[in-house]
Amino acid sequence: MPMPLRRRDECPACSADLHVCRLCEFYDTSVAKSCREPVAEEVTDKERANFCDYFRGQSGIDAAGGAGEAEGARAQLEAMFGIDSKASDQSSAGDAESLMERKRAKAEEARKQLDALFGDVDKPK
Question: Phi first, then psi: what are they for 20, rounded to 5°?
Answer without folding.
Answer: -125, 155
